[in-house]
Amino acid sequence: MQSENANQANAARAAWLRVLALARSDALDAAFQRLAEAQALPAYRLLRKPESGMAMVRARAGGTGAQFNLGEMSVTRCAVVLDQTGDEAATAGVSYVQGRGARHAEQAAVLDALLQRATWHRRVQDIVIAPLSQALDERAAQQAAVAAQTRVEFFTMARGED
Length: 162
Hints:
- The chain has helices spanning about 1-20, 25-40, 100-115, 120-150; strands at about 45-60, 65-80, 90-100.
- The chain is α+β, with helices and mostly antiparallel strands.
- The chain has one domain (about 1-150).
- A 3-stranded antiparallel sheet has the order 1-2-3.
- Helix 1 (about 1-20) runs antiparallel to helix 3 (about 100-115), helix 1 (about 1-20) crosses helix 4 (about 120-150) and helix 2 (about 25-40) runs antiparallel to helix 4 (about 120-150).
- It is elongated, with a radius of gyration of 21 Å.
């Protein structure tokens, strides 16, 4: 039972980390500012300052074939720890984002840490994660609609017996 709860918690955290990583930087910044205006954010320290590097991207031929190295992409990572407040222990947050967005990575790491605290979880979900998730869904739907315009349907006409 404990491992099932841990798996659910890991899946929930993976979901919000995905939303934070894929959000547009300006949208994340605006959401972060709205959260900070609603209530003062707890103090935090950088465990690992935002740093950029390269990561190898792997792919599969046809989506199911053998894996191969597709190429490299730039990635920025960051780790923070929220200071202990009241009865809540210090909480670590991490982030990995595509590109060289140091501010994006730091804000995502702070939000990850806040989402792990019971007193902040619902507020961050409502003010930050829900709007960013909706924006991601809308962007995906828009991209799917554009791609659908180029769809070609093939059909075969049967010829009579010669």
